[in-house]
Amino acid sequence: MHNGKARAFTNIALIKYWGKKDQQLILPMNNSLSLTLDAFYTETSVSFSKKYTADSFYLDGQLQDEKSTEKVRRFLDLVREQSQFFEYAIVQSQNFVPTAAGLASSASGLAALAGACNDALGLNLSDKELSRLARKGSGSACRSIYGGFVEWEKGDSDQNSYALPVPSNHWEDELAMIFILINDKAKDISSRNGMQRTVATSTYYTDWVKNVDIDIKKAREAITTHDFQALGEVTESNCLKMHATTLAASPPFTYWTPNSLKAMNKVHTMRQAGQDCYFTMDAGPNVKVLCQKKDSQKIYHELQKEFPAEQLVMAYAGKGMETLETEVAK
């Protein structure tokens, strides 16, 4: 029996990944840039054994159905092919984040699974190699291999599409992100399906791809110079451009809800009143508020005037994927 366990934290894209040019290899249409956070994470253990007759996947203690297991099985097949180790596995994953609610649980989940498989089978993969492997399970998972600011190089092949840390001189330690949990239920339109529809039909999509390279450069420069206003402005702008592409798809769709708009308007109002904060949203209704740590408590309390405390989560910069001790001796 070969056992491994790992923990990976969620990351939130400041410059979004939206659209694939290769569905099978999960090669993105554009670079993206994220911040790994400490508030939400996944712990995953994997056990390979000749005794098992099929792969099994447990999420939060519940055996998952065939549809949910298929994504994990496909990833295990990639690991088996790469390692030439052809035993079935039991995967047990605990999500400390609502699944499929726009809080990037697939990113932390597949990054943790990649780390657990690397540990179990003694693959000794480098961080770059782990990032490439995690990418093939879930695109944004490649960024959760690292802590802090991370950029996913889009590449044009399996070999050169991976994430790398963005040097910041630890500036991320001065930042915070407040999650406004509008909805913790599964989305009507998954990120995967939303991306496919947008790439295929949105009249705004070509302009999105052109503009995102400019946004990446702005974000990198803001991180290098520790310019919070510049980073906040490009983060919010990039988010709105991404969501505009969904409204121009056919048929059009949106991840926004009335409470999402309420949260965005609240951030605008706060900023007009002199508070440094900016919002971003992924493929889901939840709103994340980027701010500086020194202002975070004041902004948190201001948000409490509109949203109950149970809907607000404070997050700071998180660590990269880490291997954990397994309960069963190897």
From TrEMBL:
Gene Ontology MF, one: ATP binding
Claim: Oxidoreductase is one of the keywords in the record: no
A Pfam family matched in the record: MVD-like_N
Superkingdom as given in the UniProt entry: Bacteria
Name of the featured protein: diphosphomevalonate decarboxylase
InterPro entries in alphabetical order: GHMP_kinase_C_sf, Mev_decarb, Mev_diP_decarb, MVD-like_N, Mvd1_C, Ribosomal_Su5_D2-typ_SF, Ribsml_uS5_D2-typ_fold_subgr
Diphosphomevalonate decarboxylase-like N-terminal domain span: 8-163
First-level EC class: lyase
NCBIfam families: mevDPdecarb
PANTHER family (UniProt xref): DIPHOSPHOMEVALONATE DECARBOXYLASE
BP GO terms, sorted: isopentenyl diphosphate biosynthetic process, mevalonate pathway
Domain Mvd1 C-terminal intervals: 179-315
Keyword entries, A-Z: ATP-binding, Lipid biosynthesis, Lipid metabolism, Lyase, Nucleotide-binding
GO cellular component: cytosol
UniProt source species: Tetragenococcus halophilus subsp. halophilus
Enzyme Commission number(s): 4.1.1.33
Gene3D superfamilies: 3.30.230.10, GHMP kinase, C-terminal domain (3.30.70.890)
Family: Belongs to the diphosphomevalonate decarboxylase family.
